[in-house]
Amino acid sequence: MVHTDVIRALLSNDNTVRRQAESTYTQIKAHQPMELATTLLTLTCFQTNSTDVETRMFAPVLLRRLVETEGLPNDATYRAQMKTQLLATLVQETQPPIRRKVSHVVAQVARQDASWPELLPSIVQLTQHPDPGMQVTALDVLATLAEYTGAKLKLHHEQLGNVFASFVASPTACTEARVAAWKALSAFVVHLESSDSLQPFSHLLPPFLQLLEGSLQNHDEVAARELLTSFLAMTEVHPSLLMLHLDLIGNAMLSTAQARSLSTDTRTLALECLLALFEHATQLFRSSKALLEAVVPCLLALLAELDDVPAWVDQFDDHKDEGTGVRVCDAGAGAIDRVAHSVGGKVLVPLIMPYIAQYLEESTSWQRQHAALFALGLMAEGSKDYLFQVLDVWLPRILDFLQHPHPRIRHAALFCVGQFARDFGVVARGKNFQTKYHGQVLPALLPLLSDAVMRNRGSAASVMSNFCHPEHCRTQYILAMLDPILSALFQALQTSPRQVQEQAITAVACVAKVVGDAFVLHYSVFMPVAAHLLTQSQGKQYALLRGKAMECVALIGQAVGKEAFLNDAKAVMDILLRHETDDSGVELQYLTQACVRIASVLQEDFVAYLPLIVPKLLQQAATKPDVVLVDWNDETAATDDDDDDDEHDGIHEIVVDVQGQGKKKLQIQTSALQGKELGLNMLYQLALDLKGAFVAYVEPALNVVLPLLKFQYLDTVRMLSGLTLAKLLEAAIAGSVVTSTAPHQVLELIFEPLLTALIEEGDLECIVGLSEAVASVLEATRAAADNGYRMGIPLAHLPTVFDKLLAVSHASVLRRVQNLSDSADDDEEEVNAEDEEAILQNVVDAIGWTIKQYKHDIVPLFVEHVAPVVNPYLEPSFPAVIRAHFICIIDDILEFGGAAVPPIMPTLLTHLWNSLEDTNPCAIRAAAYGAGICAQHGGMAFEPHCVPTLQRVWTCIQALEHDRVETEQAAARDNCVSAVGKFCLYRAHLVDAPTLLGLWLNCLPLQSDAIEARAVHADLVTMVERSNMDLLGENYVHLALVLKKFADILALDLDEEFEPVLEDETKARLTAVLQHIQATYPPAIVQSAWSSLSEDDQQVFASLQ
């Protein structure tokens, strides 16, 4: 079969003929690439193939791919002839679609061969062709060249700028050519870098807007969308280009987005352009108050564009727009969320709340009330702090709508409350949503679990799951309503369709997890229901329900504990292990997680199941990624509806621009990646829960997990790999005897690769995880060494370890300083500030664990390798939030450095004093802790510095606020109070201990810094145990105050809304102290002190009995 016949056969509708042609084509491509290129060029060119349009359409696609993969022949004459023929074809070809395909061949050849001096002049000259169609072709070629060879075209920015301007700004040029010019301009501009080269293009923005307006007025929405798409790409790369015309552009996008006469595609694309301005030019937008004020009502109006669909009450999903798959209201919803994240609550909340109040009052329009409620939920995460502050006023109004007669308004109110429960479950300081509002929310939510509209019933169960999140909700919030909640959920499981059952059974699991062993009374009711759903719900459509039933069984088991669950656990495990599931489906995820959760309950009794589970998890984690980089062309673009990020049948597709090669499509088998991540996560969990019982699987797990530190396709896999390695080390330690060398061998195997992965990692969240893993490894190593295991990083290797860790911290410091300097607004959220805080803390912890392990031996290494690097960060001029982290390293040296510390103590104290004289509570907190350490461990070397240090600490106590426990200042004050107590305990001969202890006692109890609170309260017990008369006073005059403080501490410890402020051991000692006081102190004094206590205080002491 000759080459031409093979090409034509590739287009055959006969599968057999086409497959044979594909096989033959592959062989020709491998063995005769030059001859194949000649054939394809012949079929591409109009001058050599004027009659067969079908092959002229197909051949350039194959030719471009061939040039890309095989390159150009080395024959210079052949190359020159190819270039000449391609340029001639651009002029002679009569079909515009074919000319576009030829332009991609031209661009690919230009990418491969830079010596084509006549190319650009020829194309520029072609833009002046009298035929508008040829002008469009020339501009299309320039756009394609920009995609493929943009870096080279930058040298001609003045010439090309004039060409583009001559069309875009020309009222006489045809619309199609003006649109093509704008597309070419946008493709070219993204490659420019300097402001000087960009500036000339700024004046073309008003003509662009006129062109856009004209296209819309002429009902040419296809052209309008092409203009908007190109504008969007330019905005994302060079938002500063829009600075002079921000209001003009913003208003144009607003008017387009609001125009109901336009298609959903066009409106949502204009909205996307507007959002790009918010996200990429946030500071510019903040400066335009008028534009911000115009955007807010627009977004609410879009959110209110809902049709009244009677069938809604019988559906569980909304029908999407037939064109884009997105309704205008959905686009508006996404926009509110993104705007909230972009500009923040400080800007958005004052702007939007008056409109929301107005919408909520419009009782004649359920759509507007629906929009207002949805908007509140959507903006919750991005406006978190500011919206939460006004929730006392707004929540009662929102809860009232849960009883509204219109089902869709009830649904919107449920959405809002569910978002609040999720997004406000964690707050910076103080009480979270569940703590503040459980008494209002739960009674209002309960009736919705029996709503006549099944969709709302399912939503109510979902909200219950959000509210009863185990990490956000405390047991006592649920206990008072536990019976009616579980009764309503039981009825929902018995009387509702599958979609509601899926939500209800998850809610049962969440409630069980929160109330813990209080669920035992309901165990016999719900466990059979969950088991029934697991075994009797058959068919693919019930896969999710079965998965949630597995989850429920496991979570109930965790809630009630091993004793109650053990009898059923074996039967449940037998069901799970016999269960047939699609290895790539969601059911597998639930099954695996359920097994691991049951393992956490059964502990050593689960070991028998490990041979059946762990090999599957190892296989999942070891799955090779199915990633393919394929060609992107007009055909695929058309079928993908211009989406840059799509997913079909478990394949995630991303269109990427590969420099020098144009657009490519990256195809990733998402199910395989998800399975890999799941397997790795479950290995982590098993090692965490089973500890030493997992030791037999440490080695095979290491073989799988270690290589994943370099896994390039999913950041979370690398992060989980690091964290899993740390848990595998802990399992190896827990499962080995003290004389075993296995734990040290594991340490040697994992530590260097883990540290290397941390140094080489570029993803910020992954750096957080890997730095945490390094710190965890060093913590486990130190603990093992303290328990007699012969393991640890050799002292000789620590300088290298320190260098790498400090390099990570230095990079983090630079990013954090940059973020702090870029924050023009004090209240503006710092970019990735939490991640940078975590990285610094992890690095400091890692160094700290080595100090704790090697103690005085490490001080010389600190002086030589650590101090020179961190000293600049300890200067008073350095940002205090960063400085505080490195003071913690000094604290560790002071606490564990022992006899090696005195020579360097004056230097270290200088840094502490500087921070004690600071106003930043973070720096004060760290330095105050160090001051207390000096008092306790400083020895004789600290005596000359004792009083000056104490004076600085006491000054901080007086300066810091003490009436609010949820502030950073209060936490810093707690550390200062702790330090004063240590001065009185360990340096009483140098200070006025009676006076100081009286002041110190009045500062108790502490609660802002729970760790320090527990330490200080233990110190108080210690002083009374030792009959410290400086504290008790002459003739026990302060005994009544001491008892009062004991009562206050106990009451605070009993309050489950706050973290415990007493260790169990301290509480036991306190009980013994009280008995000792009653038995040995003068009875009259004890009786007088006791009678001074209130009834509540006396009842608190009674709780100790």
Automatic annotation (TrEMBL):
Keywords: Cytoplasm, Nucleus, Protein transport, Repeat, Transport. Residues 95-248 form the IPO4/5-like TPR repeats domain. Its main location: cytoplasm. It comes from the Eukaryota. Gene3D superfamilies: Leucine-rich Repeat Variant (1.25.10.10). PROSITE patterns: HEAT_REPEAT (PS50077). Pfam families: HEAT_EZ, Importin_rep_4, TPR_IPO5. It is found in: Cytoplasm; Nucleus. SUPFAM superfamilies: ARM repeat. GO terms for cellular component: cytoplasm; nucleus. This is IPO4/5-like TPR repeats domain-containing protein. It comes from Aphanomyces invadans.
